[in-house]
Design brief:
This protein is an alpha/beta fold and 284 residues long. The protein has 15 helices and five strands. The protein has a single domain, classed as Rossmann fold (3-Layer(aba) Sandwich).
Length: 284
């Protein structure tokens, strides 16, 4: 049986790094050694994501060629994979060649997770399907206010002079932040081109809830036709701890209220408690 391609499309700050670590250690999954390839977003959302092409080009330029490295060595493979990522900019065939380079016998699925793919429109998702017609799409949703706040906190810990509190309202008008919480837009684009049986949507709140974690992860592994393996529950890539003030949550909810309502309708009201609480508390 030919291995199945899959792609995780986000959302950012919704457990994708943890899930990538899970896939990377799963014996039936050939997961991209470069977790976030940023190929489709850089190509189909260049206004927001073209900088990733420069990032990989600079990385390759500053990476010395591993002279004397044995064929198949980690050093040589890493150099070749970054080179293939750079070559993808002008040759889409290099995307497939990248995975062919690392695909191993016994892998049932292969793929990558790039949360920025959640910013693609239907043209971008259609491009993935043209390359892999049976591609499976995995999308993790997180309470929009919590996701947005976690995104701000993440950058607070990594950007000089960036304050989540000070930038909170300003960044609501920045698509690099707000667009990633616009699940209604992403779901509408996905539903235009992706067959229902090739799309799985789960909630962050279920995946990282001790009572439902295994059930949700089993749903993911079943969707990908791989065996369920008990996970290591340690969180990955945590942002700094700073509770979301109530007045900020209310403002974020009002900004994303259409997203809450769309997702609630999409799932017939079967959404996590934190989503429902925000809708009940701030709808007046």
């Amino acid at each position: 049986m030919e291995p199945q391609f899959f792609v995780g499309i986000g959302a950012q700050r919704a457990g994708t790094t943890w899930l990538a670590d899970y896939f990377a250690t799963h014996p039936q999954v050939c997961f991209s050694p470069i977790k976030e390839l940023h190929y489709f977003d850089a190509k189909y959302q260049p206004g927001l994501c073209a900088l990733f092409n420069d990032y990989f080009a600079n990385q390759l330029q500053n990476l010395p060629y591993p002279h004397g490295a044995k064929p198949g060595s980690k050093e040589l493979l890493n150099y070749q994979l970054i080179g293939l990522r750079v070559a993808m900019v002008n040759d889409s065939r290099k995307y497939k060649e990248y995975f062919e380079k690392v695909l191993y016998e016994g892998a049932r699925v292969f793929g990558e997770i790039t949360p920025a793919y959640s910013m693609l429109d239907s043209v971008g998702f259609e491009a993935i399907l043209k390359m892999y017609p049976k591609a499976k799409f995995l999308y993790i949703l997180r309470n929009p206010a919590d996701r947005y706040w976690s995104h701000l906190k993440f950058h607070e810990g990594r950007k000089k002079n960036f304050s989540a509190m000070e930038k909170a309202f300003e960044c609501l008008d920045n698509p690099q932040y707000a667009l990633r919480s616009d699940y209604s837009r992403t779901l509408a684009a996905l539903n235009m081109v992706v067959p229902q049986e090739q799309l799985l949507i789960v909630f962050f709140e279920d995946l990282f809830n001790g009572l439902s974690m295994n059930t949700t992860l089993e749903k993911i592994t079943s969707f990908l036709s791989i065996d369920f393996i008990m996970p290591d529950i340690r969180p990955a890539n945590e942002s700094i701890k700073k509770p979301l003030p109530e007045m900020y949550r209310k403002r974020f909810y009002r900004h994303f209220c259409n997203v809450y309502q769309f997702v609630s309708h999409y799932f017939n009201g079967q959404i996590p408690e934190s989503w429902l609480a925000d809708m009940q508390n701030f709808n007046s």
